[in-house]
Backbone:
């Protein structure tokens, strides 16, 4: 970066009452760049009560950190801020209100406003990429086929998912992947293509081939099939993806006096229609002995989690199998009884997020101490499994009758409540036994996993839960954050 550009991104002395231009420069908040979130203690501070837990969402590798840090330079070349440099934090805050508290405005495309475009590219796009680069390394994705690997990304926007996947999976970069990126607006697709090309150029490798497709989510599968037929492309995607799409669709529709029940019913119809179209496509793939996966990622909010849970239920009914995060193929315990009060989501710290991005967040009044998401990976092949395992799906919270802070977990036999689990990271999995004889938490209906049960693991007929030691080597874990809202 030249001297003139450095001066542009530095705060110049101004009058006290004058607004200062945003700068991407900042000193780290601590020497290590690591900090505990939401008051949680790191593993180094204490001996974990569940050392056999297999962690998930670990801190990103040095390579990914470096590439995320350089993403600012890519943005500057593709989307120079110019006059929007001074107002960027305010523009980010304004767009955040539209996307969170005033979602009715989503009926009007925000990509038509230059200030909103800059805000999205410099804030929302990189934060979404940061989240996805924490997820992709732990997804059991099948490798792209050697012949015609096709990725179909719905609601692609500025290619958020393809860019995050390309960053997370360097072993995929040299493969001849074709991305069909669909969105109802062409402008974000064009922006994403330029960003992807510039990012790949900086890394010294060619980008994947990207074909833009103008199509809204509701009709995307049918338009995709017709598009492939017209272009003489075999409509057999190795991976179908949709990130942060469904929640926007649900909230952007005018209410017209409809109640929550009517809106939820309409949302179910949208999901059913899409999955039916997808099922017809994947049935043809099955006849050709081809395997395909479908990935949905929604925000880790109550709405996002509920959408993912409903989507899973509909998908299983149509013959899909759930690959991640579910440790089982049974009905979701969060769709039954008292489990409906919470939702499936995962939370992790900011480690690896670029300094320039965390600074912009603070300047916009949107400082973060944790990130969350609600993912679902489906498969067209039968991968059903009913392992006696549990996956941690909540933040830590206090239960008067249990020691330490507890967390909820999901298992084939319903909700479980893990005692003294503050140091067990969100998304971790445990291997269980003896679940049928566990005590039941009166408030949630979850079976209780007590720390003391680990020492009674080999006793037959015991009344406690035994936990089998995982054979996998533990490499460490990230801390979970956020408030539990289910108790």
Residues:
């Amino acid at each position: 970066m030249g001297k003139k550009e450095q001066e542009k991104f530095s705060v110049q002395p101004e009058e006290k009452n004058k607004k200062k231009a945003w700068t991407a420069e900042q000193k780290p908040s601590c020497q290590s760049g690591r900090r505990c979130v939401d008051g949680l203690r790191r593993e180094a501070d204490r001996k974990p009560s569940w050392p056999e837990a297999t962690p998930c969402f670990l801190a990103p590798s040095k390579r990914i950190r470096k590439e995320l840090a350089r993403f600012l330079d890519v943005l500057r070349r593709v989307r120079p801020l110019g006059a929007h440099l001074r107002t960027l934090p305010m523009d980010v805050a304004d767009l955040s209100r539209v996307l969170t508290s005033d979602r009715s405005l989503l009926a009007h495309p925000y990509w038509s406003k230059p200030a909103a475009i800059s805000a999205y590219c410099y804030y929302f796009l990189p934060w979404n990429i940061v989240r996805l680069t924490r997820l992709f390394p732990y997804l059991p994705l099948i490798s792209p086929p050697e012949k015609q690997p096709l990725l179909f990304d719905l609601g692609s926007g500025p290619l958020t998912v393809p860019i995050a996947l390309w960053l997370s999976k360097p072993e995929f970069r040299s493969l001849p992947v074709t991305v069909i990126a669909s969105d109802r607006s062409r402008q974000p697709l064009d922006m994403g293509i330029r960003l992807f090309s510039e990012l790949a150029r900086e890394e010294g490798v060619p980008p994947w081939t990207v074909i833009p497709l103008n199509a809204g989510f509701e009709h995307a599968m049918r338009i995709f099939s017709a598009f492939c037929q017209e272009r003489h492309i075999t409509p057999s995607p190795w991976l179908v993806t949709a990130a942060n799409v469904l929640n926007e669709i649900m909230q952007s529709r005018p209410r017209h006096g409809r109640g929550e029940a009517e809106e939820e019913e309409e949302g179910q119809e949208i999901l059913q229609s899409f999955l039916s179209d997808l099922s017809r496509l994947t049935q043809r793939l099955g006849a050709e002995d081809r395997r395909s996966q479908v990935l949905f990622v929604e925000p880790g909010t109550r709405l996002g989690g509920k959408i993912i849970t409903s989507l899973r239920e509909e998908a299983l009914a149509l013959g899909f199998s759930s690959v991640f995060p579910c440790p089982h193929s049974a009905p979701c315990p969060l769709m039954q009884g008292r489990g409906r009060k919470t939702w499936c989501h995962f939370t992790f710290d900011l480690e690896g997020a670029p300094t320039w991005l965390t600074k912009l967040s603070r300047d916009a009044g949107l400082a973060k101490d944790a990130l969350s998401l609600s993912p679902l990976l489906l498969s067209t092949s039968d991968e059903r499994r009913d392992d006696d395992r549990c996956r941690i799906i909540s933040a830590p919270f206090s239960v008067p009758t249990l020691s330490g802070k507890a967390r909820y977990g999901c298992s084939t036999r319903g909700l479980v409540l893990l005692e003294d689990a503050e140091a067990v990271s969100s998304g971790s999995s445990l291997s269980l036994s003896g679940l049928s004889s566990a005590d039941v938490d009166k408030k949630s209906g979850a079976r209780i996993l007590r720390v003391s049960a680990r020492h009674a693991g080999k006793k037959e007929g015991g009344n406690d839960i035994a936990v089998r030691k995982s054979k996998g080597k533990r490499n460490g874990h990230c801390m979970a954050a956020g408030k539990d809202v289910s108790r």
Remarks:
- The chain has two domains: 62-253+261-379, 389-468.
